[in-house]
Write a structure and sequence with these properties.
Chain lengths: 382, 71
Amino acid sequence: MIQPHGGKLVDRVLDGECRQDVLETSRSLPKLRINDESVSDVENIATGVFSPLEGFMGKAELRNVLNEMRLPDDLPWTIPIVLDADPEEASRFKEGKDILLENESGRPVAVLHLVEKYRYDKDELAEKVFLTMDRAHPGVAKVAGMKDVLLAGPLDLLEISPTPFDRYKLSPKETRILFREKGWKTIVAFQTRNTPHIGHEYVQKTALTFTDGVFVNPVIGKKKKGDFKDEVILASYDELIKHYYLKERAVMAILQMEMRYAGPREAIHHAVVRKNFGCTHIIIGRDHAGVGTYYHPYAAQDIFEEFPDLGIAPLFFRAFYFCKKCQSVVNEKICPHQTCDQIQFSGTKIRDLLVKGQVPPPELMRPEVAKVIMQFKNPFNE
Amino acid sequence: MEKETMTVTIPASLYKKIEEIIKGTPGASVSSYLVKLVRERLAQEEKKGEAFSQEDEEKVKERLKALGYID
């Protein structure tokens, strides 16, 4: 089995008596209420999804990640994992002391052992991570709205917050044992925030022809307006896998994590996370984790050149389309025909058809998948 | 903030060979070439295998069965 990033799977989930003791003593601690995205970060740190991180990043780690795309020990890491706080509320917290982190409904989530609190340059963070300062970019807009102080230090998780999708929620420890039980040695990860069309299926099955299993791993969490709702993505993939995949070759589990839309940097982050789940390969397609026209369509593939030590192998795919002459799904590397013979897997086109209540043609989307999507009154985020 | 670096020594002949290889590659240097090679090699050195406790294994397998991931 592939090693977790940094060699050790982080496990900072408290249980049993230890959890009870910490929960009781934590009642007297100063409290900080955090949003759902930060709760996801906390859980991802504690369950090893973000191994080797044991907590939120300090100033030196953040600087290294921004400037070098690596942690101070040279391990590849491209996305800042930080916790922001209002200066006034941060003034209540002392370095070297613990803080109780609560979710938006006031439930205890974790204890943060505060090592450092510091100010940071939002413009620098946005420009280095997203390669733009344009406030129309969802990531840049989010950073602009962050609070001015960052809190750093290791944390211990008290409780995993329940979600409507717990049936699909697996930790890296669980996926690693699952892959081993299935006898898979090579596992290809497929990151998605979409319902599947034929192009997605084709990419996954192409990768599956030379690996033991495919790990379909939809990102669940805050997304932008117009994206498919989480429940729609899961229901449509369930249907696709049921009708068109071998049960012993495909597994789906969610990744509860905010999409940052950081294009190339986020592609590396997605790879690291899937390595921690035990995947040996990851599919990187056109404009992976991109938004609008901020990134070159294949920038998310090119960036892997800089990380020969990532430990998980990227599988690069050009965009697929249906060719009327070939009568099959192809891409520009294998199809000699003209543009007029191509039917593109356009998300916008498929979406428009679905909104109008029309079933997309079978060369674009499986009818079973379309039917499931159309059962939802409004399948899109508002 | 400057990145901390250290100096290592290699034979001049090797240095010249690397210079030849990277000639014409924009932004490339002997140092960056060697850093990339060393990183590649270190990644291969990562040890394989992991161990979860027996109790963890049983608990996880029970959950995976309950969720229908394994029979």
